[in-house]
Amino acid sequence: MTPSATARWAWSFPISVNIDADLARRLVAAQFPQWRHLPVSPVAFGGWDNRTFHLGDEMTVRLPSAAPYSLQVEKEHRWLPRLAPLLPLPIPTPLAMGEPAQGYAWHWSVYRWIDGETAKTAHITDLRAFAIALAEFLVALRGIDPADGPGSGQHNFYRGGPLAVYDGEARQAIAALKGQVDTQAATTVWEAALAATWHGSPVWFHGDVAWGNLLVADGDLSAVIDFGTSGVGDPSCDLAITWTFFEGDSREVFRKRIAVDDATWARGRGWTLWKAMITVAGHDANQVEAERQRRVIDEVIADHCRWA
Questions:
Q1: How many beta carbons lie within 10 A of that of residue 17, not counting itself?
Q2: What is the pLDDT of residues 43-61, one digit of tens each?
């Protein structure tokens, strides 16, 4: 499978197995009998790439929802314990790796539970302070020695690699959205991103910095979770939250504190534009989500006009 095909596949791959609390309970009981007495129940926000369940009060079970996501399990078990001591906020702690069984085909994980609510604006006391804390976390992540870290590949759907991987589907989405967005401006932003070739040394990136992967406690950013698409390479994919979540003063302070060059911002705009466009053009999003992604497209275009 070519990188371009894999990129599209990552966003449209159907869930191919029924993953529920009963399956998680049976897997735990068979492979980790020391925890078989603990109750298993779904978490409030279970995610798409993985299905997550409470295991008692202090652990979670995470089951990849499809084959491509299963590539991330071993990576997280290898690297998260090495990254955690070097970061200013908690990240997931792997406790055990499960084997395929019970009709379930992939490796899976048990993690320590991290308290907190997902980062909806209603949960955040000061969005500016939240933006600063997130920027400082990402700067610290970029500063960790990337030696032997996982490069761009199928495990993270080619995040951290050249944006050209997504060129075909980006242009298809632009054509499909004619009349819905400013396609001429979108093309300009996309081509500017492609031209802003990355020449830097590889650095660590998270790969999916979104509100659902950021936890809040007492109104503040308290943890960063789900490193399944992490790796070492170009960190521009971590800038998407600039336009998908921040605005006004919080956006400006995030831009200042994240401290990347203009070319990285250009690629970040391109990465964000691609993801928003394929979401709308793919017709998988409901009306509310499609409208939200159109606003993201407009914000990215306006940002390009301001800074390019």
A1: 16
A2: 987 667 899 999 999 999 9
260 contact partners, CB below 8 Å, separation of at least 6 = 235, 236, 239, 268
State pTM to two decimals: 0.93
Task: Collapse the DSSP code of 76 into the 3-class scheme (helix H, G, I; strand E, B; otherwise coil) and give the result.
Answer: helix
Kindly list the strands in the beta sheet with 50-55, ordered across the sheet, starting from the edge strand earlier in the chain.
Answer: 40-42, 50-55, 59-64, 108-112, 94-98
Same-domain check for residues 47 and 163: no
Give pLDDT tens digits for 172-231.
999 999 999 999 999 999 999 999 999 999 999 999 999 999 999 999 999 999 999 999
CA angle 120, 126, 128 (to 5 degrees): 100
Would you say 232 and 161 are in contact if contact means Cβ atoms under 8 Å apart?
Answer: no
Burial class of 90 by CB neighbour count within 10 A (0 to 12, 13 to 18, 19+): middle
Q: By residue range, what is the domain housing residue 50?
A: 12-114
Which two structure tokens, joined as six digits, stand for 21?
């609390």
Q: How far apart are CA 258 and CA 268, in angstroms?
A: 12
Residues 184 and 279 in one domain: yes
Which amino acid, 247?
Answer: E
Specify if 237 maps to a domain: yes
Q: Which CATH number do you get for residue 72? A: 3.30.200.20
3-state SS assignment for residue 197: coil
55 sits in which H/E element: strand 50-55
Is 14:179 a contact under the CB 8 Å cutoff?
Answer: no
